Amino acid sequence: MEKYSACDTCGHFNAQGLQKLGVKVEEVDYVIALAGNPNTGKSTVFNSLTGLRQHTGNWPGKTVIRAEGAYAYNDKKYKLIDLPGTYSLLSTSDDEEVARNFILFGKPDVTVVVVDASRLERNLNLVLQILEITDKAVLCLNLMDEAERNNISIDQRTLSRDLGIPVVATSARYNRGIPELIQTIEGVANGSIKCKAHHVINIPKNIKKATNNLVVELEKQFPKLPNKSWIALRLLQGDERIIKALESGELIVE
Amino acid sequence: MSKKVENIVEFANELRWQIGDELHDHLTESIYADAAKIASASVSTENSKKSFRLDAKIDKIVTSKIWGFPIMFLVLALVLWITIIGANYPSSMLATLLLDNVHPILKSFAASIGMPWWLDGFLIDGVYLALAWVIAVMLPPMAIFFPLFTMLEDFGYLPRVAFNMDYLFKKTGAHGKQALTMSMGFGCNAAGVVATRIIDSPRERLIAIITNNFSLCNGRWPTQILIATIFIGAVVPSSLSGFASVSAVISIAILGIGFMFLSSWLLTKTVLKGEVSTFNLELPPYRPPRIWKTIYTSLIDRTLIVLWRAMVFAVPAGAIIWLISNIYIGDESIAAWIINSLDGFGLILGLNGVILLAYIVAIPANEIVIPTILMLTVMVTGISGGEGAGVMFELDSVNETATILRAGGWTLLTAVNVMLFSLLHNPCSTTIYTIYKETKSVKWTVIASLLPLIMGFVVTFLVAQIWRVF
Amino acid sequence: MSYNPIIMLILFFVFLAIFLILFRPVKGYYWILKNSLKQNKKIVIEDILKQLYHCEISDKEVGIEFLSGVLKSKDTNILEAVKEMEAKDLISTQGNSIKLNTSGREYALKIIRVHRLWEKYLAEKTGYDKKEWHDRAELMEHKLDEKATNILASELGNPMFDPHGDPIPTQTGEIVELGGVTLSSLKRYDIGKIIHIEDEPDVIYRQILAENIHIGSYIRVIENNSKRVVFYAEGEEFILAPIVAANVTVLTIDNEEEIDKDLVRLSSLKENETGEIISISKESRGEARRRLLDLGFVKGSKVSLDLTGPMNNPRGYHIKGTTIALRNEQAIHILIKKSSQNGKV
């Protein structure tokens, strides 16, 4: 157990640092988005952070409506948004729209991506897509207890280096690793932890070329636009929502 | 659209023409390729085969050709049995408390402060009674059924049921997961409709929502059992009456499943043809359920939310039931007038005006159908018994109930058709509201509400005519 | 009782029968009437243009009788339309043969563009069955104006081919040359790739669909005579009547190296066998295709059969650490190469 958390036994941490606020979400300092594949225990992580008790089923795709909760840590208030569990952000189902739009337009301060440690490769699909959109992310390696039972071990340092974002191992069911997760979120939110997210490198040449051409054009027309290569990719796919966002200017950061 | 955006979009379209239509394919492939590389650098597995085997072994049994279906039906039957038997005792306790004890206290309190009779009747006999009834009949079965079901869900068994059943559902254009939303509907249709969120294909989800009402819900089981005991049990020798009435109720539930398949098929062939249809079903690993947490969350999430909605709808229904029985136009109460005008139509369907009116006013919850029928029957026949106009009641004795119903002109045909109509009529208002919230479409809500009603009219009509021919 | 139940029953069935006769899907008189009312002159003209275009491609002579036969319309109607079209300089007649003029050809391409785009739309964005695409597009091609068509095209990402493999004309009327030969003209041992499946006439199209033959499949002919055409594709043997095979277009390939002989469908994977995904057939499209990819059914993934289930359909496949159930109808669209026996994932 100690392996997971030194802070579990530390009275100071629990008594003064963390305060679970349930649904009381007003005047928050940071907005945190919680994303992940279905069935990775995302809602359990949500519950252990906020003290809420959202139902979590052993079912792919349980949370469809966006759930919100809050907690306070070191005098800062955090609002937590539990996004619907999705396999990807590239398709067009309602769930994916909700998740994608929040990460993109909701501009969360940190995006926590919850993954099933026993199925890392499969889950990285979503992680890499999220990292294309945002830099400020934390990987939450959940269900570590199951991974251990299956004799799967993960080198967190290598993983963190390869992805360019902090990695925290948790077993949310048993509240293990949650304090570290909270600390890491704080670090990314206030900028003391710097992220340099991995971007997909294996993109075929012709797509790469088209994207680059489009980025050049975007650079000319919308110099203030963040994340141009990703937007270029979406435009290549004819994403109506992105075209609308270009028009309304909601993607531009001041 | 501004010129700037238009130019960009046009340029993007042009580039797309050069890339061809496999952008999504290539993109997903390259992301997965990266994922594989990153994962292989940090993940190491030792003899992992061993632990996978336990999951695989359970899977081999619960999806096997021999055991797959029997295990499934056994589990479902067990859950329903525990629910129905287990709910009896707390239900009657709640009924004694809320109806036999609290109600008279409220009445005498109202009398003591000199409340006018109409206000007292409206509030206590109308609104309070409807509310009390809904709580007493609805709460216990749901508080048992939902935690049991949630436990199966947490364990991971339900996706296997969907896997086993998919072939049958596919034949009617539906999704295997509909087996679960349908089973959930045996507990409560509103909860079943909410549960359809697990189906991520638009067409199949709509089918599951629209046909959920064909699952005989908790609110309707008691009606079925009562009527089957009185009328079906009576036509066979008394040694067999228990068996006959139970078989009759089970046949109705199975008939409901039949209608569910029939309407799923009809819907795919007609109105839902153009909706997008996809199929995918992940079979997640088994996880030991956490019993207390499950009970807690399923009570909060499912039971209380559904109960609350039912209560909200029960209040106006109680008020209306009392009002129509106590407001007179000429020498007739509104209720009597409606009953008389519905009687003709009711008789063609093998029912009567009282039953139809009861189904109209009891739209908030099927639980109050029988009390309303009894009250209205006593009122229009003028026989002794009951608690007065607009005061719903139920009797402890099955025989006395039978006497009242027979006095109201009920025959075996009426009983059979009431059982059929109880299965095939519009969903309760809680469910209708839930359907609207889930689909956000008036069209689908109307179809979901009217389809079973029309089927109910047609089926009871046909049964009545054929019955009368022979 | 003052009424007779038998009469009630008879009344009921009479009403039911009338309702069915009127509103039965597609063949109900209500729908037929509704469609026939729309048979105005514009539609007749557009249908004639389309026929002329198709005949021009296949070098067929066209006269009035041919048109009235194909379009199931009266000679007089066609004659009237042809006169009007000549006046509008869409066509010119020489004796009995009718030829397209430039403006007529452009007009025809516009109609074809709408038709094929709409089929693409139905395939990608709706759940309508393949068998219905053609008929629905036939109705839509007369309805969409040019602006709406261009919006539709850009929403679909300006596709080049419709779901049957036919090229879609561009806004400016350019059209890709399809090439290829009919499957029935191939000889024994010829190899090639299916590039087009003709959706007319309906009877033959349904037979091809029933065989689960896909665009993009590599084939090898093993028998071709007047009675039947037999060929191998994706690890399975197909037998077609020559008249049916004539509606399948194949691009022949000279170099045998180019085709993967071991390519089989995922549905043929047996328990304890492992395979590697090579591609997903073009027949799996739209949302359904994207879902498969998202779930990890991408090129290079290792896959094994985990569970067969009580009905043998759907089956559970182990892929990237999880068991995913697919229906056999989906699994036939995924092409794999089986690994050597007893390989482990």
Descriptive notes:
The complex is a heterotrimer of chains A (254), B (470) and C (345). Chain A is an alpha/beta fold. Helix content of chain A is 41%, strand content 18%. Chain A contains 10 helices and 8 strands. Chain A is globular and about 50 Å long. The model of chain A is unreliable at 1-16 and 56-64 (pLDDT under 50). In chain B, helix 4 (68-112) packs antiparallel against helix 5 (117-155) and helix 10 crosses helix 16 (398-407). In chain B, strands 3-4 form a two-stranded antiparallel ribbon. In chain C, strands 3-8-4-5-6-7 form a 6-stranded antiparallel β-sheet. In chain C, strands 9-14-10-11-12-13 form a 6-stranded antiparallel β-sheet. The model of chain C has no long low-confidence stretch (mean pLDDT 85). Chain C starts with a helix and ends in a 7-residue tail after the last strand. The radius of gyration of chain C is 25 Å and the shape is globular. Chain C has helices spanning 5-23, 29-37, 41-57, 64-70, 75-87, 102-125, 130-140, 146-155, 202-210, 242-245, 286-294, 328-331, and strands at residues 91-94, 97-100, 181-182, 191-197, 218-224, 229-233, 236-240, 248-252, 263-265, 274-280, 302-307, 315-319, 322-326, 334-338. Classes of the chains: A alpha/beta (254), B mainly alpha (470), C alpha+beta (345). Chains in contact: A-B, A-C, B-C. Strand 2 of chain B pairs antiparallel with strand 13 of chain C, so a sheet runs across the interface.
